[in-house]
Amino acid sequence: MNHISITFVTPWYGTFAGGAEVAARTLAEQLSKRGFDVQVLTTCCRSPFDNWWQNTLPPGVEKINGVIVRRFPVKQEGENLYHEVNYRIIHNMEVDEKFQHQFLENSINSQALVDYAQANTDGHLVIGMPYTQGLIYSLIQSLEGRASIMPCFHDEPQFKWITTAQMLERSRHIFFLTEEEKTLAIKHYGHSIGRRLIESPVIGVGVELPIDIEKLQKSNSSLLEEIKVRCNLPEKFFVYVGRKDIGKNILTLIDYFKDYQSHGGDATLVFLGGGDANLVPTNKGFLDLGFVPEEDKYLIISQALGLINLSHNESFSLVLMEAWLCGIPVIVHRNGEVTTAHCKKSQGGIPVSSSEEFEAALEILSSQDKGKMLARSGKRYVQSKYSWDCVINQFFRGAYQG
């Protein structure tokens, strides 16, 4: 099986840790380690936080963690046309088929990348992600049934667009990250896509930490104390990991935490990751550490009372898995279908839907015995369902289907 060549296509790679990019990067690296011929085609745009119509990285070929990465210049026209449609989406205005195509045609794209894929990936398993970006739409249209998709679906306006239906219809394979994502797709597209959609695999995302947190904790490693001092971590804190973005329900999280503080709560909310730092209050009880090295991230998470992710739209939520492997429980929003399902299946976290429920959950996680019990259940869930061997077996089962 190792003779198969695999090409991943994603708008950003190597310097940005968004969900789809992490899914692509970790799977590519694991397949490469197992001897597969793997490459990634991506753009010269560094991250979603850079201008999508400007090249912030040089074109060319590099090797990142053993994986060949080819970067191509972005399309530099169409920014205003894209923002015209994005304004309509943000303000809940109608987005008809004309605007849907306008959005995808002027989102981040690279004709040079698509031309390369057309000419150089015959016989490859080509997989594009995520479905919301013009690059992936162009790839699937151009390769005419040769490219597969790992869509990373959420229940959002774009999910129901004609352009999404076109991508699913013309994809060779469809790879889902969770059962909930697949159920959503079948509910809306099952009648039109049919059996191919219903039989598409759910592969998940493999999760392994690069350091042995449990061993460090048992040995009272100086690393744990050193990170506390270096980052000025408070004695009691909860952690949010990810992009600081209104779309991630950050404002609700902050409001809930302020309510908790007003009722005498004495823990701090620590933020890790990029995004809009202006969203984080500067008053006592909030601490934004921004981006930190990967090892530092896990050392910080492992000392928190719990991880909080109130986003409604997650196609997998890697941070939940990482928190459980770090030995801490989680709090999610009940409206987050995927994250709530993870918590119910694992018994490793608490879904909430109000400030009162949030405060009650913080109190439960603040109890060392109850928090550890939830964390142990979550860790067992990750280790049984999301080992890399399990994920890669599912991946190839889907790739060789039909």
Automatic annotation (TrEMBL):
Could you identify this protein by its name? Answer: Glycosyl transferase family 1 domain-containing protein
Which Gene3D superfamilies does the entry mention? Glycogen Phosphorylase B
Q: Where is the Glycosyl transferase family domain?
A: 232-369
Q: Which domain of life is it from?
A: Bacteria
